[in-house]
Design goal:
about 250 residues, alpha+beta, Lambda Exonuclease, Chain A, 10 helices, 5 strands, globular
């Protein structure tokens, strides 16, 4: 018998911009992550970004950007993500930390920080669960999301705009800004009209709800789609897990 609440039937109690973007980009990957609970560990680049955010928040609370704190946090996060520090990706990111830090320390120059990693929750009509996100930095008059990258973009991606749309829904009077930092440069993007991306976020969330309402059985839902494991998103671990479901 089908449940009246398809999310609850599958043990899903909230969505996030990340989960919604995953569903849009790669539904089989979404099934792996959110129905079968198979996750790959964070890469060294993701750890680098988290460490830099941590060090930046410490600057706001303690008065200076501490590079020793940055390196220590990077090593701690690598250990938590089971990333060996002697691997090439980890060594590469470790060497670039100071350069990233110098760019962020110099150019991330906003005043009146009010919160860091603030949880926001948005409820949509006809959706039984909320969409939850975490704002990197919220200042008195703006929300700023920090993105660290090795390749500076010419403009934000559609996925990033959907993420920022959620923050705009939570803080409609605040300016919404993306701050990109590489080891050599930075860019700021002020996102002034996110109405279309708010609609996309809502539409995709309702699409996920409709997909889950087909069956309470995750294996039956998986049988309706098939993964493209040639995609870069499918690492060795995920490919092996996919064989257990789709072969």
């Amino acid at each position: 018998m089908l449940s009246n609440d398809p999310f609850n039937a599958h043990g899903i109690h909230w969505l996030s911009p990340s989960s919604i973007n995953t569903y849009i980009n790669d539904p089989p990957m979404w099934v792996m992550r959110y129905l079968f609970k198979v996750r790959s560990s964070s890469g060294a680049a993701a750890v680098r970004g988290n460490a830099l955010e941590f060090a930046l928040e410490k600057k706001y609370t303690e008065g200076e950007f501490d590079y020793a704190t940055l390196e220590a946090k990077f090593m701690t996060l690598c250990a938590e993500s089971t990333i060996a520090l002697d691997t090439k990706p980890a060594q590469k990111e470790m060497k670039s930390l100071t350069n990233f830090g110098e760019i962020i320390d110099k150019w991330f120059d906003y005043d009146n920080l009010e919160s860091y990693q603030e949880k926001v929750e948005v409820k949509l009509d006809d959706l039984s669960i909320p969409i939850i996100g975490y704002i990197d930095f919220r200042f008195k008059d703006r929300v700023v999301d920090l993105k660290t990258t090795n390749r500076m973009p010419s403009e934000p991606t559609e996925a990033q705009k959907r993420q920022m749309a959620l923050y705009s829904m939570a803080y409609p009077s605040n300016e919404i800004e993306l701050f990109f930092a590489s080891s050599k440069d930075h860019k700021k993007f002020i996102l002034t009209n996110l109405d279309e991306y708010k609609k996309q976020l809502a539409k995709a969330a309702h699409t996920i709800q409709k997909f889950l309402s087909i069956s309470n059985d995750k294996h039956e839902l998986a049988s309706l789609i098939y993964p493209n494991t040639d995609s870069w998103m499918w690492g060795k671990q995920m490919k092996e897990e996919a064989k257990k479901i789709w072969n």
